[in-house]
Design brief:
The complex is a heterotrimer of chains A (264), B (384) and C (295). Chain A has 264 residues and is mainly α. Chain A has eleven helices and no strands. Chain A has helices at residues 3-32, 49-56, 58-91, 97-109, 112-126, 132-157, 160-168, 173-202, 205-211, 218-228, 233-263. The chains are: A mainly alpha (264), B alpha+beta (384), C mainly alpha (295). The interface between A and C is large, with 91 and 88 residues.
Chain lengths: 264, 384, 295
């Protein structure tokens, strides 16, 4: 096989795989702007009626707010708990570090259904079921790995001597961490926080158990919609989520390019 | 002691390390180091990577806490003093300039942190420092807009602006190319003379240590191998390690056959004896030792010529000849191994490979060094 | 010379600042306490619950290991997860390889395409296959227009649709992991292979591919663990025959309210995933994230 032929073959394969990856996203977006009454692709015409339907439906609006509240609180908690942990893991010699890291990261690989039923069983006697705070507390656990991993990566690539340079020239250590190190590490923290938020917004099973009745978050609402109805409202709600996702994705990209410029 | 150090002694700090140790896991990074640095002196910590020199520097700075031992700055223990209160200036290997601050803000940083100067005084001091490092025209630039040499100067200015009595430098010239490095060496020397601060300078570059320092501390395996002025270290190394690490050396193992006032007769092969001079290192007959002869101390003669016969010479064949611009390097195979010989340009042209020659040296050029690989013992021998 | 190495008596070591010694513990404590309370404690409670239907009993576990239903569901789960893992790896590999070969704008473009789906809800991504693969979906319409088939193919509610959905969901993460592993391969080794006579394909097969295998194994373990827990995709795109363990647990808990049975099944699933994660950790140390244990 010649090198050129190999390249063309690889290029073709990559194009097909990328199309497979992106196609579902495009389809949902397209249908959300459909003028028809059914989930059909390609849509018969363009309209914003399904977005209007969502905006006019108090249940959907409240679901969006629930998701925003739970996600922000979970991301905030994950950040407050995860950033110091990342500092400790990167900066210090700690006994049983491997075990501790495994503990922090294991929420990532635990099957969601296991976390969901165990959390529900635990929260019933504590009265945390049907509360936004309860769900946020649970989501903070699975959001934490994102914060810890990204903060640790930033910390590792940051020049530690910058902080030392500040300290040796008179800055109190805490000042140096807050004013020198945190700004440098902040893109990593922000990416981690955004990922924790997105994780919370997408999480279905814990949310089903904890907020499955009244005050559903968007994910639960979409899930019940997907199983029951067949009009494009779901597509529009999904498109709003995709829009949010692309927005956050863009802000992450911006944060990353900021990080590159900082370190340049 | 060097004259320049004496005139500025008042403003530098005296640093003493007492039995300092630092261990990572099971490996000792710094092992029981004691050292006195007089005020105002430029002292280099020289050694291969992993010899403990940077760890020592970080212990002095306070970034690391020693497992045992103490550090005294001006006779005051700094064990309880956190780094930001030690009043030290420091230049880092990659400069570590704050990327979000201008040159002037970087230089002014220590003033904002530690001094009670008014805004005008601070501005004046920053201007003075920038003038000292010849960067007055760049004060509004950001670090990423500067060349490596310029960043290096900003780092110097920042380290010195609050007039610290002690300046630590961690391989500050490592990232620069050779020409610029030599220029910066001269500048750092000049700045040291004009401010009079005590400088502790870490480097793995032996020529840098020799040209810049009043005192060189050679480190090896987490310990101090030898301390001395550049000349002492080069001309009277206490161990094979120091001899080999500073400059080039020929080390011939041999057995001491006889001792008298003039020196030692050393048997280096079957019926081959050479003479080695007396030094502070004492050996007795029967002991095994290295004979050190520097390549530039040797002269090469065509074989059979009348010159260069006797116990300060060896016969051999030229196996390699290389041209280095200012000098020729010759490899001469004698019975006991290869001798490296440095020959002036005008003489080197006379030799070619395969030619039998005789290599000779002056009576004081050959010195004995302990044979043991244990350089630590050699260090102790030097002290006693 | 005034400077000497002085043999002196060791000064008594001043006590290290206790705050500094306590620092790592103080930094880690909140995080670990949170995980213990909101994650480990619930898991322990779930384990306890699985053993206490009416007094202490192993009834739930004996049901679990004797019932034909669970055996079948477990088999389906492992089979589906294995196939999904293999498919995700074989599609992610060329993507990741193309990423290592490309540079600049092309790499950025491919990365954006790979990552955008990652940010889209799993429900939404699964749901769109419902539209695409249905009897009136674009695939069937296209095939009928082209005259390839005359009646719509049954593309939904079978293992095929479940795998199509799962692999699309797993692909971004798999690609990112493989790309990360491939970036660690020294490109000059490929150049060295070529200069010593290997053709492009030979250099890939004899040097690059073997060096990328550890990354592939690591990705395989992670992707397999994640696949075991899938709920939404098989529920939406599969028939009852494609039921996976997470669905069964949800039915036990949410509809049958048999918490003992759900807990027992959940605990077994937890043990399996933890074991695989432990194997992963053994060979692909998580410690690498923090730059090794000796920083």
């Amino acid at each position: 096989m010649s090198a050129a032929a190999a390249r063309i073959g690889l290029g073709a394969a990559v194009t097909v795989i990328l199309a497979y990856l992106i196609f579902p996203v495009v389809v949902v977006l397209a249908i959300s702007f459909s003028s028809g009454n059914f989930l059909s692709f390609p849509p018969p015409g363009f309209s914003l009626r399904w977005y209007q339907a969502i905006a006019g439906d108090p249940e959907w609006v409240s679901a969006l707010f629930v998701t925003l509240k739970v996600g922000s609180l979970a991301a905030l908690l994950a950040t407050l708990l995860g950033v110091p942990a990342a500092f400790a893991l990167v900066r210090y010699v700690i006994p049983a570090k491997a075990l501790l890291s495994a503990l922090i990261l294991c929420a990532l690989v635990t099957p969601p259904v296991v976390t969901a039923i165990s959390t529900y069983l635990f929260f019933v006697p504590l009265g945390l079921v049907n509360t936004i705070v309860g769900l946020a507390c649970a989501h903070a656990v699975s959001g934490m790995p994102f914060v810890v991993i990204n903060t640790a990566a930033s910390l590792r690539s940051a020049d530690r001597n910058l902080e030392r340079a500040a300290i040796i020239h008179g800055a109190p250590p805490l000042w140096a961490i807050i004013r020198i190190t945190l700004p440098i590490v902040s893109p990593g923290i922000i990416i981690g926080a955004i990922l924790a938020f997105v994780h919370s917004a997408h999480e279905l099973l814990i949310a089903t158990f904890l907020l499955g009745g009244v005050g559903k978050p968007v994910a639960v609402k979409i899930w019940s919609g997907v199983q029951a109805t067949s009009d494009p409202t779901i597509a529009a709600a999904s498109a709003i989520l995709i829009g949010l996702a692309i927005l956050t994705f863009a802000s992450v990209a911006a944060a990353q390019s900021l990080a590159r410029r900082r370190s340049a | 002691m060097d004259q320049s150090a004496a005139t500025t002694r008042t403003s530098g700090a005296q640093v003493r390390l007492r039995k300092l140790s630092k261990t990572y896991g099971t490996t000792a990074a710094v092992d029981d180091i004691s050292l006195d640095v007089p005020a105002g002196v430029f002292v280099s910590l020289l050694g291969p990577s992993g010899s403990g020199k940077t760890t020592t520097l970080n212990l002095i700075a306070g970034f690391l806490t020693p497992d045992s031992g103490d550090i005294l700055i001006d006779d005051r223990s700094v064990a309880e003093v956190p780094p930001h209160r030690r009043n030290i200036g420091m230049v880092f290997q990659s400069y570590s300039l704050f990327p979000h601050m201008t040159v002037a803000d970087n230089v002014g940083f220590p003033l904002r942190m530690r001094s009670k100067l008014t805004r005008d005084e601070a501005r004046k001091r920053i201007a003075e420092m920038l003038a000292l490092v010849q960067l007055s025209h760049l004060e509004t630039r950001y670090p990423r807009q500067l060349s490596g040499g310029q960043q290096q100067r900003v780092a110097m200015a920042r380290a010195l602006v609050s007039r610290p009595r002690l300046l630590l430098m961690d391989e500050p010239l490592g990232a620069l190319d050779r020409k610029l490095r030599e220029q910066m060496q001269a500048e750092i020397r000049h700045i040291h003379r004009s401010v009079g601060t005590t400088v502790v300078y870490v480097t793995h570059d032996q020529s840098e240590a020799l040209t810049m320092s009043d005192v060189v501390v050679v480190m090896h395996h987490a310990r101090i191998a030898q301390i001395g002025t550049p000349r002492q270290l080069y001309e009277a190394p206490a161990s094979a390690f120091v001899a080999d690490f500073l400059g080039d050396s020929n080390l011939l193992p041999g057995t001491i056959a006889a001792v008298d006032e003039s020196g030692y007769a050393v048997k280096i092969g079957n019926g081959v004896f050479v003479h080695a001079a007396q030094s502070q290192l004492k050996f007795s007959a029967g002991e095994r030792a290295y004979i050190l002869i520097r390549p530039e101390d040797m002269t090469v003669h065509p074989a059979g010529s009348a010159q260069g016969d006797g116990p300060q010479s060896l016969a051999g064949d030229v196996t390699e000849l290389s041209y280095h611009g200012d000098v020729f390097w010759l490899s001469v195979a004698v019975g006991q191994g290869l001798l490296k010989v440095k020959v002036a340009r005008e003489q080197g042209g006379a030799f070619e490979t395969g030619r039998p020659v005789r290599v000779s040296w002056s009576p004081n050029a050959a010195r004995l060094l302990p044979l043991a690989d244990d350089d630590l013992r050699a260090g102790e021998r030097a002290r006693s | 010379m005034t400077i000497t190495a002085q043999p002196e008596t060791a000064a008594p070591r001043a006590p290290v600042l206790t705050l500094q010694r306590m620092m790592p513990a103080l930094l880690l404590m909140p995080c670990l306490a949170w995980i213990s309370f909101f994650f480990l404690l619930p898991l322990a409670l779930m384990c306890w619950r699985s053993l206490t239907a009416e007094g202490f009993s192993l009834a739930a576990y004996s049901t679990l290991f004797t019932s034909a239903l669970y055996a079948k569901v477990m088999l389906t789960t492992v089979k589906t997860a294995s196939i999904a893992t293999v498919l995700a790896l074989s599609l992610a590999y060329p993507l990741a390889y193309a990423l290592t070969l490309s540079g600049g704008k092309l790499r950025a473009l491919i990365l954006v395409f790979v990552l955008i789906p990652y940010w889209v809800d799993i429900i939404v991504r699964s749901f769109s296959w419902l539209i695409l693969l249905g009897d009136n979906g674009i695939i069937n319409k296209m095939l009928m227009t082209l005259g390839v088939v005359h009646t719509p193919l049954e593309l939904l509610y079978n293992p095929f649709s479940v795998l199509v959905g799962m692999v699309q969901i797993l692909l971004p993460l798999t690609t990112v992991i493989l790309f990360g592993a491939m970036l660690r391969i020294d490109r000059t080794l490929i150049a060295a292979a070529k200069i010593h006579g290997a053709g492009g394909w030979q250099a890939f097969r004899t040097v690059f591919f073997p060096l990328s295998l550890p990354g592939v194994y690591g990705a395989a373990l992670l992707v397999f663990v994640l696949s075991l827990g899938f709920y939404v995709t098989p529920a939406l795109l599969g028939s009852p025959r494609e039921t996976m363990i997470a669905q069964t647990i949800m039915v036990e808990a949410n509809q049958l309210l048999d918490w003992e049975q759900a807990s027992a099944a959940g605990f077994v699933l937890l043990v399996i995933t933890t074991l695989i994660a432990a194997i992963y950790n053994r060979y692909f140390s998580l410690d690498r994230l923090w730059g090794g244990s000796d920083t």
